[in-house]
Amino acid sequence: FMVRSDARAWWMVFVNALMFAGAFALPALWPNPLTIVLSVLILGGRQLGLAIFYHDCSHGVFFKTRWLNDVVGHWLAGGLLNTSMYAYRAYHLKHHQFAGTEDDPDIGIARAYPTSADSMKRKLSRDLSGRTGFKALRGQLSRFGFKRNLPFILAHSLLIATLWASGILWTYVLWWAAYIFVHQLITRLRFMGEHGVCVDLLSPDARENTCTTRVAWWERLLIAPNYVNYHLEHHLSAAVPCYRLKPLHKLLTDKGFFDGFDCLSHGYIDVVKRAMRTDKVELAPA
Prior knowledge:
- The structure is a single chain.
- By secondary structure, this protein is an all-alpha fold.
- The chain is built from 14 helices and two strands, in the order ααααααααααβαααβα.
- The protein has a two-stranded parallel sheet with strand order 1-2.
- Helix 2 crosses helix 4 (85-98) and helix 2 (33-59) packs across helix 9.
- The chain is globular and about 55 Å long.
- The relative contact order is 0.15.
């Protein structure tokens, strides 16, 4: 399961690139409200897919070739999302090192769940209305600098040039619509499914401090790209590339590894429900 493959990694990059191309081309070929909404939904999901790329590259496991992890993770995936893979790596590795303890840098976010139904509605409405996205964008603009944001400048210059050469430059605005109105929501769903619904954040057992979400095909398309939903398996061994997490999950299931543990969600509707439950722990502050 820890075997890395440049061919598998490039295939995933190619498939995601095709989905980006299709999402931009769809409303350009058939411009109407339905195709625009569908385009924004797909782009938002694929933006999370880029985050999975730089996540795996930060672990050095996406490509077999080390420099490819750095180039694709930092300059392409990180560049498009305006995220430094190197800064992310320093933060994220602490999350793995201290998962299940008070020193986990993500524990504060995880403790926002479970929450009340009213609080959940407010959280989701902030995401869907764009308030979360505009806040994130303002934060990025406040820290913007040429040297700091060079990967973003280069990656988006390439994206703009490609759309312009294709005669559909106007669709570039859909990237930002997806980032503001969709990406923030599915990022929240992702985190809830990973750590927000687990039963004990301070347990040393990954089956209690981390969860996996089993998803349908449409959720994989729009919400859980690139096997991001297999997060418990990732915490068991961060050396396993994302394209090998699904067979690892199957093996663990067949061996009964999850039996007796409340660590599996069944779709993201179930995730939201579990993030509001009161049977295991007290509600977090609203």
